[in-house]
């Protein structure tokens, strides 16, 4: 494999990881509604935990559908 192919492979992996990290952090922030955990009441924390799980499930489903659609091309 030439250097260009190796560089593209590494950059693609870094880009995917950075994108996944951003999506995870965004979903977490969405679940918390922008508040810090320390500033929340107990009820808000419980609600956030439920919301976080459902948001995580939606993100996983979206990633799965993206993988399936890439295979169909």
Essential attributes:
0% strand, mainly alpha, elongated, 73 residues
Number of strands: 0
Specify the structural class: mainly alpha
First-to-last CA distance: 25 Å
Taken together, the total number of domains comes to: 1
- Main sheet: strands, sense, barrel: none
Mean pLDDT: 83
Low-confidence stretches: none
> What global shape is seen?
elongated
Instruction: Determine Rg (CA atoms, Å).
Output: 17 Å
Task: Provide a short characterization of the protein structure.
By secondary structure, this protein is mostly helical.
Structural summary, described in words:
The protein has one domain (3-72). The chain is 84% helix and 0% strand. The protein has helices spanning 3-32, 42-72. It is elongated, with a radius of gyration of 17 Å. The model has no long low-confidence stretch (mean pLDDT 83).
Secondary structure: elements and pairs:
Blueprint: H1 3-32, H2 42-72
């Amino acid at each position: 494999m030439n250097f260009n192919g190796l560089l593209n492979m590494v950059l693609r992996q870094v880009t995917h990881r950075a994108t996944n990290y951003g999506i995870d952090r965004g979903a977490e922030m969405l679940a918390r509604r922008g508040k810090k955990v320390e500033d929340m009441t107990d009820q808000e924390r419980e609600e956030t935990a439920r919301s976080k799980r459902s948001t995580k499930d939606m993100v996983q489903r979206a990633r799965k559908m993206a993988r399936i659609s890439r295979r169909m091309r």
